[in-house]
Amino acid sequence: MKVSVLHRDPTSFLAVGLSVQLSLSEDQSQAQYGSSILGWGDRQWILCEWPFHLGQPIPCSVGMSCRLRYIYDGKLIGYRTEVLNTQMQPFPFLLLAFPSTLDEVPLRKHGRVLAQEPIVLTPVTNDRTSAQAEPLTRIGALLMDLSAAGCAVLLQRPAREFFMGMLVRVEFEIVGTGHVNNLTGVIRNVSIQADGTQLGLEFRFDGQETIEYRGWGGSVQKALESVVLRKHFIESA
C-alpha cells in the first residue's frame, strides 16, 4: 500500500516526558522499546531514557543507528538517528543525534493488524467479575487480529456461552511493548467457525486496565494505537 510522507519541523515534537518508541537497526526481532524524552540541545542532540527489557538495558552502543517514533494526532511520526553516547549514571540514558526532518505517515486510527498471540478472557457481570465467591473463570484463546479499538479472538468453547453485549476482561502480550491486564472488552459479534468460536470485541477503556512495561509512560490505549500504527507503517514501507 502506498503512503504519503510529509515533513514536519523537527522542533515541533519536543516535550519533556513525551512517550516515544525506539527500534535498533541491529535488533533482528525489530522490537519496539518504550522510552521518553528527557531533554535536548537545540538542533544538536536529544536525551531519552535507556529502555530496559527483562530487567536489563537493551543492548546499545555508540554509533548504532536506530529509529525514534511517536504517535501524534492519529499519525506515526519519526526519524532515523544514531546513538551519540550512552550512560548508566546517575540514571540510564541515551544521547541521540538531532533530526533534520521528521517523517509523518498518515494512517487509519483503527486499522486492524493480524495477530497470532495467546489471550486470556475472564467473563464479567455488571462490571464486576462474576461468581465473587468462586474461582474466576479464565478462558484461553487465540488473538486473531488487533486494533486500537478492539480485537477478534478464536476459542474452543460453545458459541452459546457468549452473547452480544457480554463483558469480558482480557489479558494479552503486545510483543516488544508490554503485557496488558484487566482490559474490558464488549462482545459485539459471535460466529461459529470451522476451527472454533470467534468473538469480535470492542475495547472499553475504564481506567482499570494496566500495561506492565518499564519506561512506557503511557496508557494501554496509546500502547495499542502505537503497535497498530507501527505494524501498518512496516507493512506500507
Summarize the structure.
The chain has 237 residues and is mainly beta.
Can you walk through the features of this model?
- This protein is mainly beta.
- The protein folds into two domains: 6-106, Roll (Pnp Oxidase, Chain A); 113-236, Thrombin, subunit H (Beta Barrel).
- Helix content is 7%, strand content 52%.
- A six-stranded antiparallel beta barrel has the order 2-3-4-9-8-7. Strands 11-13-14-17-16-15 form a six-stranded antiparallel beta barrel.
- A hairpin with a 3-residue loop joins strand 13 (139-146) and strand 14.
Distance between the termini: 8 Å
Q: Low-confidence stretches at least 5 residues in length (pLDDT < 50)?
A: 1-7, 127-133
The profile of the biggest β sheet is: 6 strands, antiparallel, barrel
The CATH superfamily of the largest domain turns out to be: predicted glycosyltransferase like domains
Quickly list its features.
237 residues; mainly beta; Pnp Oxidase, Chain A; six-stranded antiparallel beta barrel; six-stranded antiparallel barrel; disordered N terminus
